[in-house]
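hey so u asked for the seq, here:
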Amino acid sequence: LDEGRRQQIEASLRELEGVISVHLHHAAHPAMLVQINPERVRSEGILSQLQAQGLDARVIVPDRLSAIGAP
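ran it, structure tokens below
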């Protein structure tokens, strides 16, 4: 993603109710980590939104974050 597109995606995610934070994380490959409040938003809805934009998106549960090099 170019910088403008990345910023656009981050901004659209931050506008969603229940999104706590959005961070670009460079581990083995660039990954955008989205922290949510599952009582206010469903991860499937966010995945659908990102996939509809042609992005590769998947759920990574907190205990798997170390697998991609996230703190």
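The CA atoms of residues 13 and 46 lie 8 Å apart. The longest strand covers residues 19-26.
lmk if thats what u needed
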